[in-house]
């Protein structure tokens, strides 16, 4: 039987003044929560949240390899703000990487799924290049990046699921349906101005290790997207095209998450820590050791 320290739930501020609901789980078999070698920051896809079974399975699976820092991205779950489809979500990823550093982790990898995959690519590239995002500078570089089922560019409408998501985003009725059915609050002014796409930025991530994962059964984004990202990223990027994999967290096939977890360990073992860690035990801001009410709403 595996034992580990308990989950710690908390609230985390971002550089642009949103408040994120978060959870931190130490690596499995870390009974006292003292292992601070490697953490993985998980950024979910559109309609995801910490209460969704698919994201819970991802978190549980990655705990075999590292401590896991998960959050509700803005506009989702108990976090404040509105969903911007990977634009301002870079602030959420940046804040979570910083939180993991403050917990004392020597190495921090990011993994994003679909929308979250675009966010982790953009965050790593912007922090590496020093590019401002809506007037703010990102401050917390990851030691490795994993992007799963991500788009390479914006305004993709060549699949039926993506046309549905554009209807959610572009019409008042769609945003109302997304809020009521999917519990996603969409920013009516998202992509004003149009932000740099993952394809525009991904070349700046080097030499940080990068893994791009995409499924042949993905109904949202065709295989042109991961291939374009890998080509633009350069030689440090690894591309996995998975025949039995669908889309994002919900489409995982058996064994793939374990392979990704092992690859994260391998990628980060080859790097020097990108940022200073602090003494273990430093709390994430406003952390609390009781789980949040999944029905509560903020913002």
UniProtKB/TrEMBL annotation:
<dbReference type="Pfam" id="PF12697">
    <property type="entry name" value="Abhydrolase_6"/>
</dbReference>
<dbReference type="InterPro" id="IPR000073">
    <property type="entry name" value="AB_hydrolase_1"/>
</dbReference>
<protein>
    <recommendedName>
        <fullName>AB hydrolase-1 domain-containing protein</fullName>
    </recommendedName>
</protein>
<feature type="region of interest" description="Disordered">
    <location>
        <begin position="274"/>
        <end position="299"/>
    </location>
</feature>
<feature type="domain" description="AB hydrolase-1">
    <location>
        <begin position="40"/>
        <end position="243"/>
    </location>
</feature>
<dbReference type="InterPro" id="IPR029058">
    <property type="entry name" value="AB_hydrolase_fold"/>
</dbReference>
């Amino acid at each position: 039987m595996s034992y580990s320290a308990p989950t710690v739930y908390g609230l985390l501020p971002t550089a642009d003044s949103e408040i994120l609901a978060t959870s931190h789980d130490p690596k499995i078999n870390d009974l006292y929560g003292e292992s601070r070698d490697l953490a993985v920051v998980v950024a979910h896809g559109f309609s995801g949240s910490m209460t969704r079974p698919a994201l819970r399975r991802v978190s549980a699976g990655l705990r075999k390899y590292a401590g896991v820092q998960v959050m509700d991205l803005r506009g989702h779950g108990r976090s404040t703000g509105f969903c911007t489809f990977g634009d301002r979500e870079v602030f959420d990823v940046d804040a979570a990487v910083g939180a993991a550093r403050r917990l004392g982790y020597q190495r921090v990898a990011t993994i994003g799924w679909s929308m979250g995959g675009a966010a982790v690519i953009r965050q790593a590239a912007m922090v590496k290049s020093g590019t401002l995002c809506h007037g703010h500078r990102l401050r917390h570089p990851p030691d490795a990046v994993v992007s799963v089922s991500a788009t390479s560019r914006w305004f993709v409408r060549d699949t039926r699921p993506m046309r549905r998501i554009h209807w959610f985003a572009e019409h008042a009725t769609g945003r109302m349906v997304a809020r009521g059915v999917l519990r996603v609050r969409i920013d009516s002014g998202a992509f004003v101005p149009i932000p740099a796409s993952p394809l525009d930025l991904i070349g700046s991530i080097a030499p940080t290790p990068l893994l791009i994962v995409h499924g042949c059964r993905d109904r949202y984004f065709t295989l042109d997207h991961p291939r374009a990202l890998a080509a633009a990223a350069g030689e440090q990027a690894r591309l996995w095209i998975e025949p039995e994999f669908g889309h994002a967290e919900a489409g995982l096939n058996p064994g793939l998450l374990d392979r990704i977890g092992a690859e994260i360990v391998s990628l980060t073992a080859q790097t020097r820590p990108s940022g200073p860690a602090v003494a273990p035990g430093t709390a994430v801001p406003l952390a609390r050791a009781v789980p949040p009410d999944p029905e509560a709403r903020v913002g």
